[in-house]
Amino acid sequence: MKIRKKLNYGKKDLLSLAPIIHRDVKVMISIKLDGDVLLAAKEKAAKDGLPYQTWINRLLRQNVLTEGDSIEARLAKAEARVEKIEQMIREIQSGKAA
């Protein structure tokens, strides 16, 4: 059973009120996107089984709220994790792992 948290829906003014958890606030805004970008977002959202607004929000969250890391820094971290996993696999295959 999926538990849903209570979301607050409102205007931008709601963000300035305290105390609130900003992640739990959904604010309706108007944004202008290029037509091809919107169509691509809708297609990708449909493939993921999500409403396109939710898909765009997740994409923004992943890219805007990433502790200030650049894409290059995040890629370097991911590559380091992959290398560590590959090393663990090599150790397991050679019988060195405890």
Walk me through the structure.
This protein is 52% helix and 6% strand. The chain has 3 helices and 2 strands. The protein has a two-stranded parallel sheet with strand order 1-2. The mean pLDDT is 80. It is mainly alpha-helical. The longest helix has 24 residues, at 71-94. It has a domain at 70-98. The chain is elongated and about 60 Å long.
Structural class by sheet pairing and helices = mainly alpha
Main beta-sheet strand count, sense and barrel state? 2 strands, parallel
Count of extended strands: 2
Strand proportion, as a percent range, falls in: 5-15%
Rounded to an integer in angstroms, the radius of gyration calculated over CA atoms is 20 Å
- Residue stretches low in confidence (pLDDT < 50, at least 5 long) are none
How far apart the termini lie comes to 39 Å
Strand line-up across the major sheet? 1-2
Reading the helices and strands in chain order gives: EEHHH
**Average of per-residue pLDDT values:** 80
What is the helix content? 40-55%
- Count of alpha and pi helical runs: 3
Q: Overall 3D geometry? A: elongated
Question: Layout of SSEs?
Answer:
Elements: E1 8-10, E2 25-27, H1 35-48, H2 52-64, H3 71-94
Parallel strand pairs: 1-2
